[in-house]
Design brief:
2 domains; alpha+beta; three-stranded antiparallel sheet; about 130 residues
Length: about 130
Amino acid sequence: MYELTPVGLYLRGLDRNDENGYYLPIEGIDPAKDIDQATYDDRSVLIPFTGKIRLAKDFINQPRVNVAYQKALAFKTVFDITLKEGQVVGVKDRSWEMEQKRVAIKDCCRFPDKLERILDAFSLDLDLE
């Protein structure tokens, strides 16, 4: 489990499975072990991630591409968080932009081809939405 705070991105807990039962300590603390997994709880490890994380909430239950996840357009509230070495260096509210794109999609048929719509749904490029 991760937690994003104003300070940075932290690892707070982790469940791991290793077929050989090999589990390294995190911050010098061994995990709690079960028969087939190890659990690291109550951690506070700053993750030195550099890149963007998109957070979205308030799902809009309308017709959508039936895939494992929904694009940002399917949510009312959307933020892009930019991190450098685990530290938050930027926050951009994209909610209004997503609303404008939903309106534009309703006004014209952006995805006439089903395959193109599916490929677009799996795009990892945050700047193309």
